[in-house]
Specification:
Helix content is 23%, strand content 22%. It has six helices and eleven strands. Helix 1 packs across helix 6 and helix 3 packs across helix 6 (221-240). It has two domains: 4-155, Alpha-Beta Barrel (N-terminal domain of MutM-like DNA repair proteins), CATH 3.20.190.10; 169-293, Helicase, Ruva Protein, domain 3, CATH 1.10.8. It has 304 residues and is an alpha+beta fold. The strands form three sheets. A five-stranded antiparallel beta sheet has the order 2-3-4-8-9. The chain starts with a helix and ends in an 11-residue tail after the last strand. It has helices at 4-18, 41-48, 169-178, 183-188, 198-208, 221-240, and strands at residues 22-28, 57-59, 62-66, 76-81, 86-91, 101-109, 113-121, 127-135, 150-152, 282-286, 289-293.
């Protein structure tokens, strides 16, 4: 599943193309891709055609395109979640349709002319929806790409991510230390800290020399702060590299792959020497997925 760097790359690619553009047409080829829009495809089209988009915003793994409000109308946005294989691609109006095209938005931009935002999704786990915007709980901007203190209703429960200027390190450290859970489970809890998935959790834990099962209530504040610093560093490096692509399912808006996979130290590196000490990286079962670690640098915690 795309994580924060991959979704941010998509958001940044969409931003100049959609900001100020008017939706000239909507084509829904797969109704399941609107599962979050409970009113259905006809309502999605009717409420969106003729409306102007004002930007592209992201929090964690969610992104949204705010719609310019009309007088007396509550603010809404086109909310997107990429799921396992969703792609938001920029296409020319006459381009050959993408193989897994599910939803097509035809746009008219005052500077860039006519263009298409194509939502392609092989596994149909991703979705688009028109979602109401509501005030943020802390009064800060809703996410990356906006100054408005608004967030989609379906995203309001999602915590801020470590690259968000409003991310509160002190509050997150305090909440984490009060819990009694494995540190990797905490990193993957999107209500505590958003945007981190399996890849970047493994990379940050390797960098901080922490085992995935280290319990949060037995850690100390400095160790947690060091881990958050490593999380930020790995996210920023991945973002600079365009994200992590292992196959054609994650690409940017132009269809290009990211190349952070070439810099991974732990994730997917089982059997290869640890870049720090040379011990072979191991893969272990974790929550119906896998964890990757160095047995020497990331020793299993002692039983309480």
């Amino acid at each position: 599943m795309p994580e924060l760097p991959e979704v941010e790359v998509v958001r940044a690619g969409l931003e100049p193309a959609v900001t100020g553009a008017v939706v000239a047409g909507v084509e829904v080829l797969e109704p399941r891709s609107l599962r979050r829009h409970l009113a259905g495809a006809d309502d999605f089209e009717a409420r969106l055609v003729g409306r102007r988009l004002t930007g592209a915003v992201r929090r964690g793994k969610f992104l949204w395109l705010p719609v310019e409000p009309r007088d007396g109308e509550a603010p809404v946005a086109v909310l997107g979640h990429l799921g396992m294989s969703g792609q938001l691609l920029l296409r020319a109006p006459g381009a050959e349709p993408d193989r897994q095209l599910r939803v097509r938005l035809a746009l008219e931009h005052p500077e860039h002319g006519d263009l298409v935002v194509a939502f392609a999704d092989q596994r149909i786990f991703g979705s688009l929806a028109l979602d109401p915007l509501e005030p943020t709980a802390d009064g800060a901007a809703g996410g990356r790409g906006t100054a408005a203190a608004l967030v989609p209703q379906h995203v309001a429960h999602i915590a801020r991510d470590p690259l968000d200027p409003a991310f509160d390190d002190d509050a997150v450290v305090a909440r984490l230390l009060r819990r009694r859970t494995g540190i990797k489970r905490a990193l993957l809890d999107q209500t505590l800290v958003s945007g981190i998935g399996n890849i970047y959790a493994d990379e940050a834990l390797w960098a901080a020399r922490l085992h995935a099962d280290a319990t949060t209530d037995r850690l100390r504040g400095p160790a947690v702060r060091r881990l958050l610093a490593e999380v930020r560093l790995v996210l920023e490096r991945a973002l600079a590299d365009g994200g992590t692509s292992f196959d054609a399912q994650y690409v940017n808006v132009n269809g290009a792959s990211g190349y952070f996979s070439q810099r991974l130290n732990a994730y997917g590196q089982q059997g290869r020497p640890c870049p720090r000490c040379g011990t072979p990286i191991v893969r272990e079962a974790f929550m119906n997925r896998s964890s990757h670690r160095c047995p020497r640098c990331q020793r299993r915690p002692r039983a309480a």
